[in-house]
UniProtKB/TrEMBL annotation:
Residues 15-69 form the HTH cro/C1-type domain. SUPFAM superfamilies: lambda repressor-like DNA-binding domains. It comes from the Bacteria. Signal peptide: none annotated. Pfam families: HTH_31, MLTR_LBD. GO terms for molecular function: DNA binding. The lineage of its organism: Bacteria, Bacillati, Actinomycetota, Actinomycetes, Propionibacteriales. InterPro entries: Cro/C1-type_HTH (IPR001387), Lambda_DNA-bd_dom_sf (IPR010982), MLTR_LBD (IPR041413). This is Transcriptional regulator. PROSITE patterns: HTH_CROC1.
Amino acid sequence: MTTSPAAQGHVGELLRDWRLRRNLSQLDLANRADVSTRHLSYVETGRSRPTSAMVLRLCAHLDVPLREQNQILLAAGFAPAHPEHALSDPPMAEANAALEAILAAHHPYPALVVDRHWELVAANEAAFALLDGVDPDLLEPPVNVLRVSVHPRGLAPRIANLDEWRAQLAVRLRREHDATGDRALRELADEIAGDLDLLPASAALVVPLQLRAGDAVLSFISTTTVFGTPREVTLSELAIEAFYPADEVTRQALTGPPR
C-alpha cells in the first residue's frame, strides 16, 4: 500500500512539503494567505500550532487535494473537514445519477469514469465494446484502465501507435503525481513507461488512441471532465474520460454513414 506525503510527519512539515511542491517561498504563501511570514515560519517549524481554519486556508492556497487536506488536519489534531462516501451511498445519489446520464448521453462514443488511480468506476456500452478480445482476467475488478490499455493481453496488440500512447500516458501520470503527491501515480507511470525512451514531439495537436478494429483503424481523441468545486473526497477524485472520433472513418464506424 502506498501513501501520500500527507500520511506522515507533523502538520508544519506537511504544509512545508506542499509549499515546496508548489514552488512557493514562505513570503509568496504568506502574501496569498494573508498571514505573516513569521507566523507561517513558526507553523512550519512546529513552534506554533495552527487552528483548523488556518490549516484549511493554507491548504486552499496550496491547492492541496481534499484527501490530503483531511490527513493534514488529522496530523494537526483536528477532525477531517471533507466527507468521503461510496458512490452507492444515499448522499451521492444525485452525483451518481449525473455520471450515469453523462455516460448514456455520450453514446455511441465511448466514455468511462475513473478514480484517482485510474481504476474503472463506470463506463457506457461503447467503451465496453472496445474491450473485445481483452483477457477476461484483466477485467476482474478492480480494473485499472491504463494497465489494460498497454498490457500484452489487453488492448496493446490492437493499438497502432502503442509507443506514442504509452509515452503520453506516462507523461500525464507524472504530471498528476506532481500535482497530487500520490506516489501510486508515479509508480504507475514508471510501470507503463517501462524502458520506453521519450519520443520526439509530434506535430499533431493531440495524441490520439489509434485502435485496430478488423481491417480499419479507429482513431479517438479524449477529453477529461471533473466535478466543479467538489467538497467531497470521492467526487473530487473522479474523472470522466470521453472519447470522440478523430476522423470521419471512426465517426462512421460508430454512427453509420451520413444520410
